[in-house]
Amino acid sequence: MMKAVCLLSGGMDSTTLAYTARDMGYEILALHFTYGQRTEEKERACARTIARLLDAVEFVEIRLDYFRTIGGSSLTDRRIGVDAYEEEREGLPNTYVPFRNANLLAIATSLAEARGADAIFVGVQAGDYSGYPDCRPEFIEAFQKTIDLGTSPDTHIVLMTPFVRMTKADILKRGLELGVPYEHTWSCYASGERACGICDSCHFRKKAFRDLGIPDPIRYGGS
Amino acid sequence: MMKAVCLLSGGMDSTTLAYTARDMGYEILALHFTYGQRTEEKERACARTIARLLDAVEFVEIRLDYFRTIGGSSLTDRRIGVDAYEEEREGLPNTYVPFRNANLLAIATSLAEARGADAIFVGVQAGDYSGYPDCRPEFIEAFQKTIDLGTSPDTHIVLMTPFVRMTKADILKRGLELGVPYEHTWSCYASGERACGICDSCHFRKKAFRDLGIPDPIRYGGS
Fold first, then answer.
1. How is domain B3-212 classified at the CATH fold level?
2. Where are the domains of chain A?
3. Region for A142 from its dihedrals, namely left if φ exceeds 0, alpha if ψ lies in -120 to 50, beta otherwise
4. Helix residue ranges per DSSP H, chain A
5. Which residues sit opposite A84 in a β-bridge?
6. Could you tell me which InterPro entries the record lists for this protein (chains A, B) (predicted)?
7. pLDDT per residue as tens digits for the range B34-59
8. In angstroms, what CA-CA distances link A22 with A6, A25, A29, B22, B67?
9. Backbone angles phi, psi at A28, to 5 degrees
10. What letter does residue B31 receive in the DSSP assignment?
């Protein structure tokens, strides 16, 4: 059986992606990161639940405290407030963690090489997003080349990003067909008991459900 | 003044490289990693000394425990003995940490972007080495492209690897011209009080000093 490292944050996209990987016949090796982000407890609980529901062969949790040492993002520096979504924002939102996806993909590649996995599934999407440079297809292509050249010659790992050109509504539609339990996912960047409903991540999640005309099973309203 | 993130392990190559960066007029932001390797105490002490001697503006130490979680290398798994150097080895030595350099470079890039640095100096060398895939020039070129595409559009970070096609003897010659204090560097992969003298890293260090016909200021003989 083919084995895939699935980056599983506990959000909508990565959860739908893990269900997609299983649907494609891969055995799931769930890789979850905490990096001092505001919502790490919620995300971990969601990711664990999803991994269990998917019969993942392993749930690897990696704590990356260094993003706090590096700083420069409201996601990891509690002194900076999380930007609310803006239609016409100039530049990147302050939730951008410098070069984050490259860090996560490098770790995923190390794990995939050590475990003999065939693929890495990562739920990045270029469109309908906040302009993060490390979500673009060109970035993913460059990283694939880095993997090909930087791993052992007998290692062959394919970076799978089937959602990179899909909208969040497309992803949601796919997930509903696959029976993804969205009540067990968490998307909000803020740290309230309920999702805030106003950060970029909530904005795009709500929009996806609205676009499909179906209710979101989680509750909003901040803390 | 231009600023450079310098990966400083405390070994010969990275120390010589940091001296090279300073000689080129860069302000030094020293980045040191510990990842559960056998010799982390020695390496940290050497790196701190060198950073101090170079008037580094910052010494950032990042602990990466996850390489132990991932496993697969004698450098981070104490149950596996460190391979001795072999002239005709088949495949990679067991000191290979899967995709390690990509992990280190991803972190260096995050730090460089967060601090507004202009360059990253990393002391990889392709030749005279143990066949690690993530030390090859093609890997470095692919990673540069990943940086260009994965960082903010107004960020410009150049990956500097002046030693990539040099032999260790060339590097040592360069370092002696720059006055590098090699008595404060540590190269051995094993964990004795003195360098073992038989691992790949000791082998190449000793060979470099022998090639130049000068004495190595550190002492050998294992524990």
1. Rossmann fold (3.40.50)
2. 3-212
3. alpha
4. 12-23, 40-53, 66-70, 100-115, 137-150, 168-177, 200-212
5. A199
6. Ni-dep_hyd_lsu_Ni_BS, QueC, Rossmann-like_a/b/a_fold
7. 877 778 888 999 999 999 999 999 99
8. 10, 5, 10, 51, 26
9. -100, 125
10. E
Question: For B101, which of A92, A98, A150 is closest by C-beta distance?
Answer: A150
Tokens 């130049």 belong to B212
Q: Which residue of B has its CA nearest to A101?
A: B150
**For residues A86 and A39, what is the distance between their CA atoms, to the nearest angstrom?**
21
- CA distances for A190 relative to A39, B37, B90, angstroms: 6, 36, 51
Token pair belonging to B166: 């040099």
Quote the tokens at residue B151.
């960082």
Encoded amino acid at A212, one letter: L
Q: First-to-last CA distance in chain B?
A: 44
**How would you list the strands of the sheet with B3-7, edge to edge?**
B58-63, B27-34, B3-7, B119-121, B158-160
DSSP B62: E
A136–B151 C-beta distance less than 8 A: no
pLDDT, block means (10 residues), chain A with 223 residues: 95 95 98 85 93 97 88 67 66 75 95 95 76 85 96 93 91 96 89 84 91 93 66
**Of A164, A208, A163, A205, which is closest to residue A17 (Cα–Cα)?**
A163
Shortest alpha-carbon distance between residue A69 and chain B (Å): 8
The H or E element spanning position A192 is: none
- Give contacts of A99 with chain B, Cβ < 8 Å: 106, 109-110, 113, 147, 150-151
Confidence of residue B78 (pLDDT cuts 50, 70, 90): low
User: If DSSP codes are grouped into helix, strand and coil, which group holds residue B58?
Assistant: strand
Which residues does A contribute to its contact with B (CB < 8 Å)? 60, 62-67, 69-72, 91-92, 96-103, 105-107, 109-111, 113-114, 133-134, 136, 138-139, 142-143, 145-153
Tokens of A152: 């052992």
